[in-house]
Structure formats: C-alpha cells, structure tokens
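Dear Dr. L.,

I hope this message finds you well. Following up on our conversation about the binding site, I have prepared a predicted three-dimensional model of the protein together with heme C. For your records, I am including the exact sequence and ligand specification that went into the calculation, followed by the structure tokens. Please feel free to forward this to your student if that is useful.
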Amino acid sequence: MPVTKRLGSTLACAMLGLAAGCSDGGSSASNPLEIASRDLVPADGQLAGVYNRSCRNCHTIAATGAPLTGDTNVWEARLAKGMDTLVDSVVNGYGGMPPFGMCMDCDAQQFEDLIAFMAEGR
Ligand code: HEC
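The resulting structure of the complex is given below.
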C-alpha cells in the first residue's frame, strides 16, 4: 500500500510539473506514513475530539519529530518502555512534547487510550 501511495504522489508531482514543486519538507507531505496518519481518527467520538485538538497537531507531522500515528514500527520501540512510562512521558512532557501533550484536562486513562490508538492506527 505505501508503495502505491508513493507512486501515486510521484505521478501527481510529475503531472503538476515544475510550477508546484515537489521537494521534501515544508508543509507538503511526501512521506507516505505521514499522509496516511492524517486519515486516522479514534473510533470513539469523545476520544476523537481530544485527539483532534491535541495529539494530532504533532503526531501527524513528521517534522515535529513525533512518532506518527499508525507508524507501528516506530511505536513498537516506544511501547517496549511500558504503557506506564509512556503515560508519564505525556504527563511530564518528553523531548519536543509539552506536558500533557496539549490536553490539560485529559486523565491517565485517556492518555493510555490515545497512545494505544496512535500506536496501532485504529
Ligand atoms: C506539540 C507537539 C506534540 C503534541 C501536541 C503531542 N505530542 Fe506526543 N510527542 C511529540 C514529540 C516531538 C515526541 C517525540 C519526543 C522524543 O522522542 O524526543 C512525542 C512522543 C510521544 C510519546 C512517546 C514518549 C516516549 O516516552 O517515548 C507518546 C506516548 C506521546 N507522544 C503521546 C502523546 C499524546 C497521547 C498526545 C495527545 C494528548 C501527544 N503526544 C501530543 C510531540 C507532541
């Protein structure tokens, strides 16, 4: 699937031609995992609301350095730390992530659900 997506975007670039430009970086995502991450939303409506106004702002943008939603390989290494450690990372802030991941009113259970969703992409 990622291969088809990559081919598709390469084709689109070729067709759009020089005017639009197809360089990496900037806001135009060329990373298939990044493009895929933008379509993923938690099935639970309330969790989706929280996700959309907080985690999504970074975890669908590779340039932030955040592990992308649905990038299961990258998340595997994070999950290996254990869920409690990951929840602590969110609560306390971690690297480029501010404390509470920008969700000040989230509780630990919500963080856990959000992490599980991002790690699996569903
Ligand atoms: C302002 C950007 C930003 C927001 C908003 C954000 N994150 Fe992050 N997150 C990051 C970055 C950047 C990293 C990678 C930090 C690193 O590895 O140095 C990260 C890493 C993580 C990690 C891995 C921590 C670890 O110990 O490896 C988890 C879990 C996580 N985020 C969960 C969340 C959740 C849940 C939300 C929403 C409530 C959220 N993030 C919102 C930027 C953000």
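In brief: The chain has two domains: 1-30, 31-120.

With kind regards,
A. P.
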